[in-house]
Amino acid sequence: MSKINKDDLKALYRSSDINELWQSYQNERVIEHPNLGLISPNEYRQNFYGKLCPFCGKKMVHGKVRYSTQSKQEAVSRGYQYKDANGKDYINQVGRFSRLYFHPYYVTLDHKINKARCPELLFEASNLQIMCWKCNQKKSDNNNFEAEQTSNFVSDLAREALNRYKNLGK
Predict the structure, then answer these.
(1) Residue 164 to residue 166: CA distance in whole angstroms
(2) Which of 58, 59, 67, 73 is spaced 20 to 30 Å from 136 by Cα?
């Protein structure tokens, strides 16, 4: 496949076109990663199999055959269903007609700056971050998600320290 022309990406306006392009390049080496070299989005994700999600700390999984199913009933029985931020049952899924349901801690490659806002950053390594699918769904389009998670972590850490060492608060 030829190299992606960033100027052509700037001309994309419809999110469906952007998503179609992203999906069609999943196995093409289009990301120039500073440490990994030229790599495809799927190869990028595969490097994080078994590693911890930087946001929730859960071990991430990878492999469509092993960690997805076409049956919603099977997904529920495998434990793929969880509560979303609103407390509603949720299962990660893709596809309009033939749906695939994925494990909540499946490795995803997220765009820090939404791909619809800046399609020219679609395959830029500096705009990509790894996280589990559950955290990606929770993040949604919140560009401040990482800062909020860090703030929550520091607050929780401080609260735990004060609980453990009561004299620190005096």
Answers:
(1) 6
(2) 73
- 3 state SS of 6: helix
Burial of 89 (0-12, 13-18, 19+ CB in 10 A): exposed
In a 3-state reduction of DSSP, which class is residue 167? helix
The DSSP string of 21-46 is HHHHTTTS--EEETTTEEE-HHHHHH
pLDDT, averaged in runs of 10, over the chain (170 residues) = 68 79 91 94 95 94 94 96 90 84 95 85 93 86 57 65 69
Task: Give residue 157's pLDDT.
Answer: 62
Q: What does the alpha-carbon distance between residue 88 and residue 39 come to, in Å, rounded to a whole number?
A: 36
Residue whose structure tokens are 């790599």: 39
Give me the DSSP letters along 128-160.
EEEEEHHHHHHHTT-TTHHHHHHHHHHHHHHHH
- Position 52 scores a pLDDT of 97
On whether the CB atoms of residues 121 and 115 are closer than 8 A, the answer is: yes
Cβ contact 74:66 at 8 Å:
no
Give Cα separations from 130 to 7, 16, 90 (angstroms). Answer: 26, 22, 21
